Amino acid sequence: MSSNRRRTGPNGSDWRNALFIAPYLFFFLTLLVFPLFWGIWLSFHKADTFSSGAFVGFNNYVRLFNDHVFLQSIWNTFYFVFLTVPALAIIGLTLALALNSSSRLATVLRSLYFSSSVLSVTIVTLIWRIVFVPQFGLLSTIYGWFGAEAPAVLADPDLAMIGIALTTIWWCIGLPMMLFLAALQQIPGDIYEAAALDNAGWWRTLISITLPSIRRTFVLVLIIQIVLQFQLFGQSWLLTRGGPNNLTKPIVLYIYDIAFRRWDVGLGAAASEVLFALILVAAMTQYLISRRQEER
Amino acid sequence: MSDVSPSPALRRGLGDHIILAAVLVLSVAMVAPVLWVIGLSLKDNAELMANPNSVFHPPYIIDNYIAIIGTSAVFRWIVNSLIVSVGLTFGTLVLASLAGYGFARLEFPGRQVLFVIVLFGLAVPEQAVLVARHQIFSILQFHNTYQGIILPGLSNAFGVFLMTQYFRAIPKELDEAALLDNASRFKIFWKVLLPLTLPAQATLGIFTFLGSWNDYFWPLISATRKEMYTLTVGMASVQSNFAQSEGVGFLMAQAVFAGLPIFIVYLFFQKYIVTAVSGAAVR
Q: Across all residues in chain A, what is the average pLDDT?
């Protein structure tokens, strides 16, 4: 087989062909692969900005799991993922179902719902700060019309994370909607015609044709969003600085605090390895569950 | 009840209409915060302090926007963001096109293994390499330089993956014909295949530009001097002024001003961006 290919194909194996890959590979190895292993190595050392000091074994990891702020930040991250990912998937799907037409209104609404996604986290948090802020806030103004006083969302222990989640959903809703729209376009139209002939109603068509056809996209959206939302940083840092009482401090903000504000680089590296492991496990679990369901 | 036996078409239409109505209501929540910010940016600070509700009535003024032109560092940050985003986009397109062609078309020892390793790179989140990368850049004294902000993005594996897929989809007969004409590998790549990949270049270029323009974490820890801030980092740094709320109108004007460039890009390239997103999704 391989000799056959070599004889007939003009593409002989030649190391010089690798020169096309070499430029990218250089950056890949120096800026991704090397830092990945360097980070693991750092997590076993007592290190600061410029140097890595003594080998300390698992000491950094032990310190990490004895730090209640870190444990809190793991809990916060999971809570945030739980608040945002299902909402993004369900709202994104609803939007896609409603706007899957070529009418003018649907076109305008599609670009409207996607437009927030092109903004940076800084602008998004500025906008939402001005929604939540007590004095000039949109929220407090609306409450004011009814003679009520709005809660200080971002300062309230129970509401702060919900406020960050709302901001995030507003910011990120465009991508899931687009992914679902792309999937809906792939469903062949004659299935729907057959369903219409069978007198299947709107609800029945949705349940037995539309949803099963886009199941793979649903899993894809969940995995993308889990990976993305696990990395929450900007919204928390800019809206609440992780407060009140570390209740909105996610893992990435913990890493930022430890590694880049307190310069305890070894501990920060250890925390980032834990985050890496969590993301991998979460995404893999989601993937394996979906695979098993598909096999059944 | 009047709906004794509604036709399927009618029932289907009803469900669609209910959802569409809900989506319309939701779009108010989408727009209202932005309108609020624009409204505040058009008000005099003193008037806002006296009565926040004054945002609903004229006079509306553009003084806050004029003040930006006089005092703000926003322009410098926009230039920084442009240099960084254009640099990274250009670099990514070059690297990804070369590597994509190599992986899709050429044979060399270890190709399969290398491609799998690069694919694994897709699964590594930025945070897993951030701490070590920062230390390496400290040693190289790359912080607070343009290359310091640009370089990490060049290691992103997404572009290579996208371009490899795209080159694979081009019929092989094209390069075989060129080979018979004794064209060199590079010439085939440059003259024959690269022009065919323009749609993929557009997709990758848009993604890279948007991602780089909006990136916050790496510029935040690498560009710590004010004159090296990108727009996202700079706008974040002025948010702390928010506590002195006499500047709300001014701050909001800065937010609108800072959001404007990317919004204009979005309006102009909307079609491409939407095709890019859904195209990448199908793959």
A: 86
- From chain B residues 139-168, the ones with a CB under 8 A of any chain A CB are 139, 151-152, 154-155, 157, 160
- Boundaries of every domain in chain A: 80-295
Kindly list the residues from chain A whose CB atom is less than 8 angstroms away from the CB atom of residue B138: 49-50
- CB-closest option in A13, A110, A130 to B252: A130
Q: Cβ of A202 and B12 within 8 Å?
A: yes
pLDDT tens-place string over residues A189-241:
888 888 888 877 778 888 888 888 888 889 889 988 998 999 999 999 999 99
Domain ranges of chain B: 8-65, 72-243
pLDDT digits over A268-294, tens only?
999 999 999 998 888 788 778 877 776
ipTM: 0.85
Architecture of the domain spanning B72-243: Orthogonal Bundle (1.10)
Looking at beta carbons, which residues of chain A come within 8 Å of B94?
A: 23
Residue A49: other Cβ atoms inside 10 A: 13
Residues of A in contact with B139 (CB under 8 A): 50
- Where does A16-67 have alpha helices with state H? 22-28, 34-42, 59-66
Superfamily of domain A80-295: MetI-like (1.10.3720.10)
The angle subtended at Cα B133 by Cα A121 and Cα B231, nearest 5°, is: 30
